[in-house]
Amino acid sequence: MAETKMTTTEIINKIFRDTDAIYGLTEFSDIDIETALDIYEKDGKYYLKCFKREKDIQVFNPESGSGNPEEIVRQLWLYKLINYYKYPADRIEVEKDVHFGSSIRARIDIIVYHKDKVTPHIVIETKKPKESEGIDQLKSYLSSEGAPIGVWSNGDAKIILYRPYPREYETLREIPRVDQTIEDVIEEKLTLRDLASEYDLRKIILALEELVLAGSGVDSFNEIFKLIYAKLYDEKEANTRKDQELFFRKTKEPQTTYDTINDLFKQAIKEWPGIFNKHEKIELAPNHLSICIPGLERIRLFGAQLPVMDQAFEYLLTTVAKGSKGQYFTPRNVIDMAVKMLNPKKNEYVIDPACGSGGFLIHAMWWVWQNQLADADQNAKSDYAKRYVYGIDFDEKTVKISRALMLIAGDGKSHVFKLNSLDTREWQGEESEKVRARAELQNLLSETGDSQKDRANRESLRNLNFDILLANPPFAGEVRDQVLFKTYDLAKNEKGKQKNTVERHILFIERALEMVRPGGRIAIVLPQGVFNNTNMSYIRNWLFDKARVLAVVGLHGNTFKPHTGTKTSVLFLQKWGEDEKPQKEYPIFMAVSKKGGKDNSGNPVYKKDEKGNPIFKSISEKVLDDDLSEIADGFVGFAKEQGFSFWR
User: Fold this and answer.
1) pLDDT digits (tens, 9 = 90+) for 598-622
2) I need a labelling partner for 34 at 20 to 30 A (CA). Which of 15, 89, 453, 633 fits?
């Protein structure tokens, strides 16, 4: 039987030793790679016809499994230089020797010359996909050749350096076409239509850190967030400007760039108060800021894919000891499962008392938009988010992330507060954040409760009337506040004696039930020990008196890797109604996840078709290989059989 001939895509995936590598070549998303590259088989090996050299290049040997991934990236750049940037092939040189002193030390991958075909114009250093080294190497090539522009690219990310001699290196958003000067690129207007929707923000931030942030003496986290908020404001305002022009871009003079971006940031502070202090400014020096802007100016933030933003923010928070606080980004497949099982409605108030990055809030919002407001206009969707979605977190950085993601997701305003959910004594005070939080939560109580009965509660804010609570509270850390313990039943042991210390997540169980109304629904992620350990039986007994256990879903051990291997489960509850007598026996939905969508190292595992290629749910989002969606579907069937009101 004749062997089936491999397609160009299959050959490239073999060369990269990655079954979906070609889908990561985002730098060439505007190229039909199948037709652009002329790869052919000869004597059992695969060769590529070079766009420049008078020879064919071996790119893959099936017998040895060896490939040449850098050559694929180089050829795609040659194709783009000739067909998009319109540089004639006779102004391009490949593998040019670089002389350091009297000896040949290296070879430049691609060099583009001016019209005289002698003066270097652009130097390009290509790397295989996922490689991140080589910026310093590129700088040495630029110095050696005297070229003003250098490009580092691994196919899915690029950095463009520009050296306006004798100043230090700056960056450009794009390299000039054959009919453009460097000044044309810098001064070219930018509009909303020019922005890319597919990108990897994490890699952009990594590049910025390598180029400038790490040595700038500023807090990278805060400065990046200032730039994100400035850009969000610019995108919002561009909708009303002529030609939808954007001001968040690099200009010729670093000080002018700084003044423009800092003004956008100041306007963002006014537009979305409570996120930054009104007196804050961008702390990056003008020349450092000028280097950062080109990496961000070409991407669209509003409406961005949530997984893209999550990865970037998760990377940022790695440096601020999230793990030591027991807080982690909740995997989105876990969030989707929990939201689907609780089935939020358009008139139900939702809260996450340990909201972190806001994943539960955003996905609850999207669930309502897609299922109950699918035919509504954006104003109606935004009105829902402004009124019904709330979040609390005690960490300033995670609050900023949550608010940013809520803005990016499209709610226009967020009820996300920097507070300690476990201790309402800390909610008192005259700081603007506390005053705003109290006012909005008291207003919620007025809307959802009996005014006379709840008057005292509106002052203490101990009990709230939310319909749905979703949370992944921090596991690590113990609370030792003896005065606070007097307000918690679960701060006492099975004999009713007050404890000296209590694990934080135990208090969150009780606090969650205080925050929802009678009949309210809860999904909370907890360590497995809460369900299994004999010394935790008093907690389980207490729970049975307070709420009906709807479901318990055991998560796979890899679910929260690489952050932690702690075995966890999601507990689903419905608080007993005011006139409802707690039941002792009833069916409970039980499930254990066998596929969490991650390998032992915490890397995502994706579903693949019969050819081994990844399956996509959208242009840029692959389908995770997990079983949580099936578990959610199983619960929905169970809920309908049991006649649960929220799934009728």
Assistant:
1) 999 988 899 988 877 778 776 557 7
2) 89
Residue of 163 and 101 predicted with greater confidence:
163
Q: Alpha-carbon distance 441 to 427, whole Å?
A: 11
Query: How confident is the model at residue 2, as a pLDDT?
Result: 45
Average pLDDT over residues 531-560: 92
pLDDT average, residue stretch 72-85: 93
Give the whole-angstrom CA distance, residue 25 versus residue 157.
Answer: 8
Residue 399: what pLDDT?
A: 86
Q: How far apart are CA 293 and CA 186, in angstroms?
A: 11
Q: How many CB atoms lie within 10 A of CB 528?
A: 14
* Nearest residue to 384 (alpha-carbon basis) of 403, 404, 408, 410: 410
CA of 557: how far to CAs of 356, 392, 503, 554, 601, in Å? 21, 27, 21, 9, 11
What whole-number distance in Å separates Cα of residue 309 and Cα of residue 202? 8
**Average pLDDT for 79-103:** 88
Name the 3-class secondary structure at 445: helix
Q: Is 530 helix (H, G, I), strand (E, B) or coil?
A: helix
Higher pLDDT, 253 or 452: 253
Distance between CA atoms of residues 319 and 407, nearest Å: 24
Q: Which residues of 222-250 are buried (b: 16+ CB within 10 A; e: fewer)?
A: bbbbbbbbbbbbbbbbbeeeeebebbbbb
CA distance 621 to 58: 32
Distance CA 568, CA 207 (A): 35
**CA dist list (Å): 610 to 19, 607, 615:** 12, 10, 10
User: Residue 429's pLDDT band (boundaries 50, 70, 90)?
Assistant: confident
pLDDT over threshold 90, residue 341:
yes
CA distances from 377 to 361, 374, 382, 386 (A): 20, 8, 9, 15
Q: Domains in the chain and their CATH numbers?
A: 190-302 (no CATH), 307-647 (3.40.50.150)
Q: Is the pLDDT of residue 213 over 50?
A: yes
Measure the CA–CA gap between 84 and 64, rounded to whole angstroms. 35
Give residue for tokens 């040997």: 61
Summarize the chain as % helix, strand, coil (round to 5): 40, 20, 40
Return the ∠ at Cα 88 (arms to 85 and 92), rounded to 5°: 95
Mean pLDDT of 63-73: 88
Q: For residue 102, what pLDDT is reported?
A: 62
Helix and strand totals (H; E) in the chain: 21, 22
CB 391, CB 416: distance < 8 Å: yes
